Amino acid sequence: MDLQDKELIPGDILPVVIIGNGPSGICLSYLLSGYTPYLSAGASHPNTLLHSKLEEQAHLSLLEQDLEYLCEGLEGRSSNPVAVLFDSLLLPDGDFGSDHTSPLEWRYEPERAVTHLVLGRGPPGGAWHAMEGSMLTLSLANWMELPGLKLKDWLREKRRNVRNDRATPAEIASYYQHYVSRMLLEQNFACGTTVTSVTREPQGQDGAPPCWRVAGLQRRDGDESGDGPLESDLEPFSVLAQNVVLATGTHDIPAWLGVEGESLPFVCHSFWELEAAIDRGELDKSRDPVLVVGAGLTAADAVLASRHFNTPVRHVFRRSVTDPGLIFNQLPKVLYPEYHKVHQMMTQQQHQLTPETPGPSSYPGYLSFPRHKVVEFRPDHKCVLESDLGERTVVQVSKALVLIGSHPNLSFLPDNGQNLALDQKEPITCRRNPIDVDPFTNRVIAADGPGLYAMGPLVGENFVRFLKGGALAIACDLAKRQREESEEQDQSPDSLMDRWLDQQRGLCVLES
């Protein structure tokens, strides 16, 4: 969809604008397009309590039910209750590798559709398109699929045999783009757009209600592939919306340590910079070690990629290897064997246990520094590390990769949206400081006005498996508000008078 230098529908107010066209925005668009989940007749769920609750009002769609009531007593790998609920319904017993059929059926009910617009910088799929260069695979296990289109089935159409439960980032990106086309959602998507401001508009002099104004720039002719377009290639746009959903993800701005020397050329903040160095032949077993800073999945990818080329690795992270908050302690070993291997390395090849001149080891060339931090990078490629006991170690490296997460680009909001976070004194991050939202509606608590929502990584959901719950919470809340507004209109004096007049006309007809 091409947006022009004017409001999309002059003077009109769109019900919903979604900023971000990754899996979060796509899933919400699916729900707002009339695709509605119901309890399937004769279906069962392994959680008997949840199943009995669903059967109480089986004639109602999930969008019409009390999500808080359905969430009671459920436990899962997400801290967001609706995410756990929706995941349990889409993938019953998913944590145990179960292939239990979902008790939900999806009905297309166009009368439920809500007019909406999805804005994104690139093609549908969001940050997944930026990962296409990765040589590594990610766990599939149906966790990254969206409702209504099985990822395994789609993969089988693309390649003759699916030998295991894995997919490349490029395949996932292609799946999301195909999903938008397959589900006929394209008319709602305006790609090649960059949002520059979201502001609250007061009530108009003509009585128009308060709303949100979303303004930005779009590449000409819907070009989705241009990197850094010329200013002349951009067209400004402005739309009014009753509701705005923040679904941008948090992969835009890499996080920095904030230590001396971090801007030196050998210090990188992106996994793709490591891949570029590999492509240039800069990493091999004869070089000084690569320093990897961080204990997330991206840091683990960097460890695996470096070791694939026999490059020595020094791995620094602030947590203990037994910390339950460490992501490796939360992942099923069967589904993530390579990450389990990295965790083994982190545990068995510790600096305190294995001095710099070790004997034979299971993982030669690798050394971990748990409960350490970097305090300085020096121009001579030396890095100063400090333990939580204050002990310092200096390591010589060829390259350093600081992979400690990222911040969302919310430059279109005042103070980069920091006033919306749980801790308003700190920048927004997925794990430590997400946007503060109501857990059952995803409404932003500190918004300037009603109708602002957030979902996905912005509220702490890194896995596609769980971000779908945010889409359900928002769609359910919008449907509830729509029903309440309809009831209020039905009870207005004008509506009551109209109904009374209709009744009188009916009586007159009967009497005659």
First-residue to last-residue Cα separation: 56 Å
Rg, please?
A: 26 Å
| Basic shape | globular
Tell me what portion of residues adopts beta-strand conformation: 15-25%
How many distinct helices? 11
Helix content: 25-40%
Largest sheet properties: 7 strands, mixed
Number of strands: 21
Mean pLDDT equals 85
Query: Which structural class best describes the helix and strand composition?
Result: alpha/beta
Unreliable sequence segments: 132-136
Describe this structure in words.
With 512 residues, the protein is of the alpha/beta class. 26% of the residues lie in helices and 20% in strands. The chain has 11 helices and 21 strands. The strands form 6 sheets. Strands 1, 4, 7, 8, 9, 10 and 21 form a 7-stranded mixed β-sheet that branches. The protein has a 5-stranded parallel β-sheet with strand order 12-19-13-14-15. Strands 16-17-18 form a 3-stranded antiparallel β-sheet, with no helix packed on it. The longest helix has 27 residues. About 1% of the residues have low confidence.
Please give a quick description of this structure.
The protein has 512 residues and is of the alpha/beta class.
Give the SSE map.
Blueprint: E1 14-19, H1 23-32, E2 35-39, H2 48-56, H3 67-71, H4 81-90, E3 104-108, E4 116-119, E5 138-139, H5 151-158, E6 166-167, H6 169-182, E7 189-190, E8 193-201, E9 211-219, E10 234-246, E11 253-254, E12 267-268, H7 271-279, E13 290-293, H8 297-308, E14 313-317, H9 337-348, E15 366-370, E16 372-377, E17 382-387, E18 392-396, E19 399-402, E20 406-407, E21 452-454, H10 464-490, H11 493-511
